[in-house]
Amino acid sequence: MTTTPTPEAPQVTDQALDHACTTVAAEIARSDSKASLLLAFCGAALAGLVSIADKDLPLISKAIGAAAAATLVAAAVLLLLVVRPDVGGRSRVVREGFPVWARLDDDTLRASLSEDTRLARIKALSTIAVGKYERLARAVDVILAALALLTVAAIGALA
Fold this sequence. Notes:
Number of domains: 1
Shape: elongated
Distance between the termini: 85 Å
Strand content: under 5%
Helix content: over 70%
Order of helices and strands: HHHHH
Structural class: mainly alpha
Number of strands: 0
Number of helices: 5
């Protein structure tokens, strides 16, 4: 009877693990920066809507403008969830790193730091990054819907 040898799993180098950790951390920072920029946009748009709320506009334009404002508030909530810190309290995604270290006694912390936990860190941070980007994408979709509503409201005001 002949057996087929199974290929060995490729070895992951220290450099690859370090690069993956750095890359994922950078993606989290990028998502937070994008969310901050979009939060500022939502705030400016809402301020603009508030400044014209008392103007004499057609009722349909006011109603659509109010729907656009509510949509922008929904987008702002999604964006706030992007920048909200995740230290493992809600999702328990984080199983290593500073959120866990804060709860350890000195001896357990020393033992934990002696282990190579980069794979766990990459997995946890990747999960956090994907969640942030999913909420960011949803927020952009909601902002686009608000802009469509604002366009309709403006056309109604000009008619």
